[in-house]
Amino acid sequence: MSRKPVPSLRAQAELNKLGSDIAIARKKRRFTQQRLADGAGVNVVTIRRLEKGDGGVSLGVLAMVLVTLGEHNRIADMLDISKDDIGLALGVNALPQRVRPKGDGKGKRKKTEPQEPSGGSDKVSF
């Protein structure tokens, strides 16, 4: 039997808060643990583990619990890239210092001479 990795103290504290918040949300809605478990399609023991901050409860169970509580958008908003301050800052830092138009390099692209139109006419049409 393999042991689960122990999360950091910070991660465990966050899981404990999440579990507590779920328990409070459930109680505000006057849901019993059994009602929440039935709505999420799991057993009561799983709901108790989630509310205690057990990191072994799957993300799928969390998603179903949030849907049952009427908070279906919470997972999608959890790390929304438009609100990811660190990711946005890193993206800005990775931008090039200068941007040059293509073909303005040192001989990288050859200029092509315009070809005469077929049919032997001297007129050039655009």
UniProtKB/TrEMBL annotation:
Domain HTH cro/C1-type: 22-72
Segments of this protein annotated with the region Disordered: 97-126
Parts of the chain that traverse the membrane: none
The protein, known as: Helix-turn-helix domain-containing protein
Organism in which the protein naturally occurs: Mesorhizobium denitrificans
PROSITE patterns per record: HTH_CROC1
GO terms assigned for molecular function: DNA binding
SMART domains xrefs: HTH_XRE
SUPFAM superfamilies: lambda repressor-like DNA-binding domains
Gene3D superfamilies according to UniProt: lambda repressor-like DNA-binding domains
